[in-house]
Amino acid sequence: MKRNVTLEEISDGKLYTAGDLVKADCGGCKECAACCQGMGESIVLDPYDIYQLSENLQMTFEELLAERIELHVVDGIVLPNLKMAMGEEECCSFLDETGRCSIHAFRPGICRLFPLGRYYTDDSFQYILQIHECRNQNRTKIKVKKWLGIPDLKSYEKYIANWHVFLLDVQKEIEQSQDEGLRKQLSMLVLREFYLKPYGEKFYEEFQERLEIQKRKSIVH
Ligand code: SF4
Ligand code: SF4
Predict the structure, then answer these.
(1) Is residue 39 part of a domain?
(2) Do the domain assignments include residue 62?
(3) pLDDT at position 125, please?
(4) Range of the domain at 18
(5) Helical H segments across the chain, by residue range
(6) How far, in Å, CA of 134 to CA of 44, rounded?
(7) pTM of the full predicted structure?
(8) Which of 41, 170, 175, 209 is deepest in the core (most CB within 10 A)?
């Protein structure tokens, strides 16, 4: 999702890599679950998130869509996001009655990052510490990679960077096209090719293959 803000407005102004220490550790969040409520459509899910949810919950994309996720348009592209429950508090459907995340071990990438964010440059990204998001003002330092807790982080980071570039390319095509039919086709292409078809055991390799296929097609250059 594109955001028209400066680094200084939303972060401590520094860029971090996986090996850096950052003041992000909320110490288990204690009684707080603020960032699991009222998030609207903002927890957008990438294909790895859906792969993790599907594998661990043994649910197809369609089954997730019936209960846990929903679709919305992000910069012209139809993408899934975590569904917040109806009602005053609008809690994430994975928040349990004790205020804890019931899928902590395989929670989506945006949840893992929080209160960190990503700052993309060309075909890579670094991490930022968002300063207005987390309610805990007494956070302690932790290494970025430990905070994320993602196995094979190198492959994950490469995948995230490639995914971001691909989405930007599709968005550009949609913006520039005068053909309404093609725009509609492109807006659904990402969902069809990267989310609806289940992945096997080697997610990163399979994802890369799908990406190469789309790049070879003239639809996305
Ligand atoms: S998946 Fe877990 S961490 Fe993410 S918003 Fe839902 S309850 Fe919170
Ligand atoms: S706002 Fe901060 S302390 Fe509260 S749940 Fe989110 S990350 Fe944890």
Answers:
(1) yes
(2) yes
(3) 97
(4) 9-216
(5) 7-10, 47-57, 61-67, 109-113, 144-148, 153-176, 180-191, 203-216
(6) 18
(7) 0.94
(8) 170
Q: How confident is the model at residue 216 (pLDDT cuts 50, 70, 90)?
A: confident
Does residue 103 have its Cβ closer than 6 Å to ligand 1?
yes
For ligand 2, whether the C-beta of 33 sits within 6 Å is: yes
Q: What is the pLDDT of residues 36-63, one digit of tens each?
A: 999 999 999 999 999 999 999 999 999 9
If one residue of 32, 52, 95, 97 were mutated to test the ligand 1 pocket, choosing by the most ligand atoms within 8 A of its CB, it would be 95
State the CB neighbour count (10 A cutoff) for residue 9: 11
103 near 112, Cβ under 8 Å? no
Residue 3 domain flag = no
State the distance from the centre of ligand 2 to the C-alpha of 29, rounded, in angstroms.
5
When pLDDT is cut at 50, 70 and 90, the band that residue 219 belongs to is: low
State whether the beta carbon of 69 lies less than 6 angstroms from ligand 1.
no
Q: Is residue 102 part of a domain?
A: yes
Give the pLDDT band (50/70/90) at residue 88.
confident
What is the number of domains present in the chain?
Answer: 1
Question: Does ligand 2 have an atom closer than 6 angstroms to the CB of 100?
Answer: no
**Which pLDDT score is estimated for 54?**
97
